[in-house]
Every structure is written in C-alpha cells, then in structure tokens.
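Exercise 7.
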Amino acid sequence: MRTLGFQRVLHSLLVCLASAGLALAAPLAPKEGRISVAVAVTDLEPIVRAVGGAQVETVNVFKGCILRKELQVEPSAKARLLAAEAIVWTGFLNESAAIAEALRGSANHASRLEPKWLDVSKGAARTNLPTSTCSGYVDPAYADGDPFFWLNPANGGLMARNIARGLGELRPGSRAFFMANAEAFEKALASDIARWKVALKPLQGVRVFAAQCGWQNFSALGGPSFVVCKGTPDEQPSPKALLLHIRAMKAALILVDPNTPPDYVEAFREHSKLKVVEVPSSIEGIRGASTYSALFENLVKSLRLANR
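Solution. The predicted structure, written as tokens, is:
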C-alpha cells in the first residue's frame, strides 16, 4: 500500500511540474477588464469574490470531496476553466493533476496562454497528521498535514492576502484595491472568530468524532476537540470498526456529513448511544450559504444545539 500511495503522489507531482513548466514557457501579459478565476474548492469562492469584487468572475471546477479517486473537472466548468486567467487552488496535488489534465486536453492548448496558479495554502497553519486510536497507514499526500486547512477560519485572512497578491500581479493597477478588500475581509472574519470562540466555551474539552475529514482543523479555535480515524488510503473502516474507535476515543458527539454513507449514519444512530449531528463540511451543502463565515456559523450553531 505504501508503494501504491507513493506512486499516486509521484504521478500527481509530475503532472503539476509539467503544468508549471508550461506556465513558465507562456507567461500571461497584463490585461484589462474582469479576471476570470477558476476555483478548486467551493469554500474559497466567497473569498475570491470578496477580494476581487466586481473585477472578478468565478467558476468552481470541482464538486464534492477533492480526495476522491479519479478526481475530474466538472464538464459544465471545463469551458470556463479553459478561458480562466487564474486558478485558485489549495496546493493539494490531486487538484492540480486533474486541472492540468483538463487544460492539456483542450483543442487549443498549444496556442493558449497558461493561467496563473494562485496557491492559497502558502503560510497556512495546518494540523499535524491526524492522530487517533485508529491505527493504519497515512497517505504520503498528507505529509505536510491535513489538506483541509481552510476549515480553520484563522487561515482565512492569509488566504485572502494570497489571493489579493495573485490578482494584483494580473492587474497591477488594482493591487491596492485587492489588498484593501483582503484586509476588510480579514477584519470582518476576525470579529466572527472572536464571537465563535465565546460561543464554543461551553463545549471546551468535548470530544467530537468527525466522520468527514477536515474538521480537526477547527479545533484550533478552542472549544470541542475533533477526533478522526484515518487508516488505509481509499479504504473506509467498517461501521463496526469505527464504533469501536469512537468508544475508545470517548467521544461525546458524532459529526456526519450529508455525503456520509447512509449505512454508517444508521449504525452510528442505532449503536453508539451518542447524539449524531449532520453538518455539511462545505457551504455547497448549506442552503442559502454564500460566505466563507457561513460554513463555521452553521457548525457552531449545530454543535451548541447538540450539546444542550
């Protein structure tokens, strides 16, 4: 399993390096007008819009979890990806491999200027490799920490500044505008974070088992401690095995996602004797959500209700 995992990461790295080489060979010249931005993660799109304002138009290139096998650009987004001046991604090689493959597969690839890749992960605080009583092999792709760093809202301001710098390189005349928007975004987010920390105090020390990866990043704010179970790549532990680990972790709540397989949710509800709370791990699953803060607002509200 270690060899297979390494081969997947190596393949993705080679694709990413090939894409980077093409980008160096055909740099973008400064343009005017709105910047078309392709976004790899739905939850980053509100940040791009907050920073870019009316000077950007965005498209999400993926739906669902970026960790899944054979990740591919959504067919409905491919045409706009090919026309994008910028690609906002998280530095996760799975994304870059799928995007680079779509770009290379276009009919006019040889004559088209390569987009600017904006990696929002630069400087982001990451959790350590997930630790729990669930033993097993951790994919090398996680060597730098959990890839869902944007689920720690404390990284939001840094991501906004990374986006502002990248957009400013494409539109030098609007650099100050983009950076001012990033600073305003960070200030508003800081106010939200302060409010969430107060709201989470009653949950201090409560252990929450998260069936969906990523929420352990939110533990950085204090309040509950999120625990996960990571094992062999591409192989989900059985519901029975997870229930044993949940008991060993002494979890008080179980957090599931709308995408958690129904048989797992049913097993948790029937056999854990714990409250099972469904909380989307992306604004994609929250009706009417259109801001980055909405993701955490929904989580905090759900946790407080479950802890009553």
